[in-house]
Amino acid sequence: MASAASVTSLVDEVNCPICQGTLREPVTIDCGHNFCRGCLTRFCEIPGPESEESLTCPLCKEPFRPGTFRPNWQLANVVENIERLQLVSTLGTAEEDDCPEHGEKVYFFCEDDEAQLCVVCREAGAHAAHTVRFLEDAAGPYREQIQKCLACLRKEREEIQEIQSRENKRIQVLLTQVATKRQQVISEFAHLSRLLEEQQGILLAQLEKLDGDILKQQEEFEFLISGEIYRFSTLVEELEEKNERPARELLTDIRSTLIRCETRKCRKPEAVSPELGQRIRDFPQQALPLQREMKKFLEKLCFELDYEPAQISLDPQTSHPKLLLSEDLQRARFSYKWQNSPDSPQRFDRATCVLAHSGFTGGRHAWVVSVDLAHGGSCTVGVVSEDVRRKGELRLRPEEGVWAVRLAWGFVSALGSFPTRLALEEQPRQVQVSLDYEVGWVTFANAVTQEHIYTFTASFTREVFPFFGLWGRGSSFSLNC
């Protein structure tokens, strides 16, 4: 048992330099000194000439920042143990192994009452009918139980630590993807801004030219129309004057005057020529290059931000003999008639499945599968690990290296550890499968409505392959590549 002097000496070592009392919730700052959390917090809040950035340690005057002090759990445990020793020393100097009731040394353990006994306690009537053993004998089975519990707890702790490591990696990958997308958006919109400015200049220049041509034709029109108005005004004045004269003067050269008026040719100029009018009507066509560039921009932006379309084909070396593959290896149909397919280690012999010819070891990829179940049956789509079982029964679940969904007549199921029937707005006929290898996501969506179907989360370490399965007469699928 620790002496009172040694306990006092330890107490002095765990005092707070600010309040001079025992440390409460000890925290450590950058220089290594420890203080009560409350004392240090209040110290940081005291107004003074220093700003928060120039706070200094109350002991060594080293600068520190308020947000950098961290809990010192080991020191907190030491303080707790010292206080426990203080309590024991104040209760008396009795030996720890002595019975508190009789003062005799404790040798036995009562399993019924879970009580430690001395010789006097054991002989007492209260424990006469109980199972009493020596301390070490009684402790043995409990030590074994503790070891088993420790093994289980350590294993579970390791699993949790693995989950922590995996999820932290996933978060870092996602952060990297977001940062990359941010740069892509900035770059693409900067390019679009330059393009829009250039196209704006082109269109405005064309409009300026149209404006100048219209004004030029307006001047020409005004000149021509003014001449016609003058000519007709002259004839009108001549006839009005003729009409006011006496009959003798009116009849003089009347026939030539009338012939000159009747045979006049009236020119009716147009303010805007047909050619210029057609140019004005065709002006919207000048924006077609911009429209094409905008379409290319949106397609490229969506491509950069979304999954890369995968160009895949079926691998006949893996196909089950009941699957009929098309010559272009883009379609498959179920048949009860076995094909004459040579056996190989890569071929499925029980599960009516087929893999894509190429797999993925990284990146973000997507492909679309069109499913035809008009005559019943089912179709399974997803991805599998390269070491997936090819011979014998294949259990379609993540534990076996399979991440897939099954489409059957009237329902869709996610093939997890236990199949889960999914509630969807409509039965998908085209399924988009998206793989994010680094993050570990396998996502399924209705390729037509974009309705989300299901997402698996995994941790890929091997190459994974697009996976397809069929069952039932007339069931088929095709790849939309």
From TrEMBL:
GO terms for molecular function: zinc ion binding. Residues 94-135 form the B box-type domain. GO terms for cellular component: cytoplasm. Keywords: Coiled coil, Cytoplasm, Metal-binding, Zinc, Zinc-finger. Residues 16-61 form the RING-type domain. It comes from the Eukaryota. Residues 292-481 form the B30.2/SPRY domain. SMART domains: BBOX (SM00336), PRY (SM00589), RING (SM00184), SPRY (SM00449). Belongs to the TRIM/RBCC family. This is Tripartite motif-containing protein 10. The lineage of its organism: Eukaryota, Metazoa, Chordata, Craniata, Vertebrata. The gene is TRIM10.
